[in-house]
Amino acid sequence: TTLMGIQLLMEEDDRLEIIGTAKNGKEAILKIKAVLPDVVLLDYILPDMSATKIIHSLSCEGINLPFLIYSGHASVQYIQAAHQAGAKGYALKGSDTLSLRDAVVTIANGGTWFSPLLSYELSKALQTTQNATISPSLFFDEKETNCLHLLGQGMTPNEIASATGVSDRTVRNWVNDFMIKLGLRSREQVTVWAVRQGFGEK
């Protein structure tokens, strides 16, 4: 999808307003500093620098914004590098372009987002307990991580909703997201996975 194609896609959504575009890293840094957008959608590789370098450069100047990476690389190494740089989401090129708009909105609202096509890679990384470099925070935000801890303690979605002050529907949406990201088929499987990964331990 070209820059123009993405721009047209975003403009069709009433939830979104484009306040700037850039064709290279230097231009992106200048525009981001000038307008401080709610969300920044960055191609992983721009002609002059990578998205991670852009994020790091802005961070060094005290500018920390929600970044969504748009990439053709599906490996966990690339995802982890983006996360460590400070990105809140990772959208894979070739996936449903309409979901890109939902990803922007999700990140604007403080969440994290990963392309559903990354599920296999994510589940492999998260299920490999020997890989100590893989952190749950790479895939789950603070609220989702807390939900996993409560699932690991044996709580039901209703109990988690009461304990955290969110709706039962929100908790069930989190659980569905866990199933997608982990390649699991039921809440029970998510709970077993959470226990095995050490969630729920005091």
Textual characterization of the structure:
- The chain has 202 residues and is α/β, with parallel strands linked by helices.
- It has two domains: 3-117, 3-Layer(aba) Sandwich (Rossmann fold), CATH 3.40.50; 140-196, Winged helix-like DNA-binding domain superfamily/Winged helix DNA-binding domain (Arc Repressor Mutant, subunit A).
- The chain contains ten helices and four strands, in the order ααβαβαβαβααααα.
- The chain has helices at residues 3-11, 25-35, 51-60, 76-85, 98-108, 119-127, 142-152, 157-164, 168-182, 187-196, and strands at 40-43, 67-71, 89-92, 113-114.
- A four-stranded parallel sheet has the order 1-2-3-4.
- Strand 1, helix 3 (51-60) and strand 2 (67-71) form a beta-alpha-beta unit.
- The longest helix has 15 residues, at 168-182.
**Into which percentage range does the β-strand content fall?**
5-15%
Number of domains: 2
Helical stretch count?
10
- Tell me the radius of gyration: 18 Å
Structural category is alpha/beta
CA-based shape: elongated
Mean pLDDT: 85
Q: In this structure, how is the largest beta sheet organized? A: 4 strands, parallel
Helix and strand sequence: HHEHEHEHEHHHHH
**What is the CATH top level name of the largest domain?**
Alpha Beta
Task: Walk across the major sheet and give the strand order.
Answer: 1-2-3-4
The percent of residues in helical segments reads: 40-55%
Cα distance, first to last residue? 46 Å
